[in-house]
Design goal:
This protein is an alpha/beta fold and 233 residues long. Helices cover 40% and strands 19% of the residues. The protein is built from 10 helices and 9 strands. The strands form 2 sheets. It has a 6-stranded parallel β-sheet with strand order 2-1-3-4-5-6, with helices on both faces. Strand 3, helix 3 and strand 4 form a beta-alpha-beta unit. Helix 2 crosses helix 3, helix 3 runs parallel beside helix 5 and helix 7 packs across helix 9. It starts with a strand and ends with a helix.
Length: 233
């Protein structure tokens, strides 16, 4: 089977949960290529024509789009059946939910990472609720806190709280996290920024005393599952 993955390619970086899912598919003998959408509105509009041209000359069995807006691009062609994975913000944000519903109606099948999302979208057929998994053996597992702090050059004696995302992500509600940590003495709040590799994220989760999530909205937060895999409260 040949699968074409359609997703955002802004910042020249594909979300880790997508690349890890594709790696799992390849282990099963499924071939997968990426079609990356770059830019905002104009980029998405141009991608519709580029995707059509690509599929005319290719032999893909399925197009798998991640996020509703990528799904809306994918369903603008009728050459290849489309499966869409809805992750969270594409359903929880009002404007994106409208566009996601259009994509959902036109797709062959839909996947929601949490049943609350499928209910909010009023999905009634051709869908499944499948959360993203965590690789306990390769990516996330308990390690020595002291050793992980040394690897990341973190203070060995201080109390460290890890914010669940980067500080400037509007949906993650950094202001509340900062206010909460200010109630404590001698506690450092650090961000889970894009600069960390997946291996370093495992080190970070093992190095910190706590993961704090204060999001305004979430789908099926992967960082919480990863923290649990590392025995981080």
């Amino acid at each position: 089977m040949n699968v074409l993955i359609v997703c955002s390619g802004n910042n020249y970086k594909v979300s880790a949960f997508i690349t890890e899912q594709v790696a799992s598919l390849k282990k099963k003998g499924i071939k997968a290529d990426f079609f990356l959408i770059k830019g905002k509105l104009l980029g998405y509009l141009m991608s519709v024509f580029m995707l059509r041209e690509l599929l005319k000359n290719s032999k893909y069995n399925i197009v798998h789009a991640h996020f509703g807006l990528s799904g809306l691009v994918a369903v603008q062609q009728r050459i290849c059946p489309v499966v869409i994975s809805f992750i969270g913000s594409d359903v929880n944000r009002n404007v994106q939910r409208i566009l996601s519903r259009i994509a959902m109606r036109l797709s062959f099948y839909n996947i929601f990472v949490d049943q609350r999302l499928s209910k909010k979208m009023n999905a009634t057929k051709s869908y499944s609720n499948i959360p993203f998994g965590v690789d306990f053996d390769k990516n996330f597992f308990p390690m020595s806190k002291k050793q992980c702090r040394k690897k990341l050059n973190l203070n060995l004696k201080s109390k460290i709280v890890l914010f669940s995302s980067r500080f400037n992500h509007p949906d993650k509600n950094y202001d509340l996290a900062r206010s909460a940590v200010k109630l404590l003495e001698n506690v450092e709040l650090i961000e889970l920024s894009d600069k960390y590799s997946r291996e370093q994220v495992c080190f970070l989760l093992n190095a910190c005393d706590l993961v704090l999530m204060t999001s305004l909205r979430e789908g099926s937060p992967q960082v919480i599952k990863e923290a649990m895999a590392c025995n981080c409260p």
